[in-house]
Amino acid sequence: MNILDKIVAHKRIEVAEAKSKVSTADLEKAPLFGRKTLSLKQALTAEGASGVISEFKRKSPSKGIINDGVLPEIVTKGYVEAGACGLSVLTDTEFFGGTFDDFAKARAANPSTPMLRKDFMIDEYQLWEAKAIGADVILLIAACLTPAEVRHLGRKAQELGLEVLLEVHDREELEQSVCEYVDMVGVNNRNLKTFVTSIETSLELAQLIPDNFVKISESGLKNAETILQLREAGYQGFLIGESFMVTENPGLALKELIGRFQLTSNQ
């Protein structure tokens, strides 16, 4: 069993336990459930946008503890002040150290910024959870869902007013899973089964993603040259977390990166 299989197996247990404690009707009573969601798609395509979606991540299965000594409200506010278009906050506890409390604190600190609930979505119940905690976007990972499940969850998410980011790792996943219930397509340069990272994955898939979807490159993005290369290939979004989170001041790290690729692009 690879790490992705382990995560999904554990997630099924988690979701079953959550359902037994809190109903969807109860989730609909949450103060943030009825809020008007913000569009990450619009934020990424706005004129002059940095395109960066900055991630708050405490740990990962491949790297272990990345940074567990920072506060989500401080880090995410720093990201937004530095020029992030959107935020990604992990809510998986077992493997990534994330919590709903992390998301809530980031949401409260950044009421006008689109936020992605970063988790392994396998059940429509999790969409209600996402709305209840104030998410604007949910992630559907093709590697752990069938094409039919992507369509079903994507349609339900959009009916709730959530945008959908579909994550793919190869051509087969892209061709089988992309559908009308997806707003953005993210190419994860990190293989979730092996955790090997290669930017070539994004470059190879760039022209295969239909132009009506906002294209986002994820994982392994550390320098301005790489981002500019991906921009030239058609990507408008760049999901970056680890390279910021390993620093003492993630917001400053983002500000410096944006400064570098804006300077390089103007030369």
Automatic annotation (TrEMBL):
GO molecular function: indole-3-glycerol-phosphate synthase activity; phosphoribosylanthranilate isomerase activity
Pathway given in the UniProt record: Amino-acid biosynthesis; L-tryptophan biosynthesis; L-tryptophan from chorismate: step 4/5
Entry keyword rRNA-binding: no
Record-linked InterPro entries: Aldolase_TIM, Indole-3-glycerol_P_synth, Indole-3-glycerol_P_synth_dom, Indole-3-GlycerolPSynthase_CS, RibuloseP-bd_barrel
UniProt GO BP: L-tryptophan biosynthetic process
PROSITE patterns noted in UniProt: IGPS (PS00614)
Taxonomic superkingdom: Bacteria
Uppermost EC category: lyase
Family matches, as Pfam families: IGPS
Residues spanning the membrane: none
Gene3D superfamilies, sorted: Aldolase class I
UniProt-listed Enzyme Commission number(s): 4.1.1.48
Domain Indole-3-glycerol phosphate synthase: 4-257
Stated family: Belongs to the TrpC family.
Protein name stated in the entry: Indole-3-glycerol phosphate synthase
Organism: Runella rosea
Gene that this sequence comes from: trpC
